[in-house]
Amino acid sequence: MLDRLIRWSLHNRLLVLTLAALVLVWGGLTAARMPVDVFPDLTAPTVSVVAGAYGMAP
């Protein structure tokens, strides 16, 4: 199956290169339109666990 895909890709080089270029341009435009936060939230969520150990020294 992979052999057929490789053979087809080599036979249709121009189509494969055109599709790759379109995907590259589309990804670049999508990345350029993404909102960028100047000060991102860097605080990690925290969980506090309080457990009693009776009979042990502090």
Automatic annotation (TrEMBL):
Gene3D superfamilies, sorted: Multidrug efflux transporter AcrB pore domain, Multidrug efflux transporter AcrB transmembrane domain
Transmembrane regions: none
GO cellular component: membrane
Listed InterPro entries: Acrflvin-R
MF annotations from Gene Ontology: transmembrane transporter activity
Pfam families for this protein: ACR_tran (PF00873)
Protein's recorded name: Efflux RND transporter permease subunit
Organism: Candidatus Tanganyikabacteria bacterium
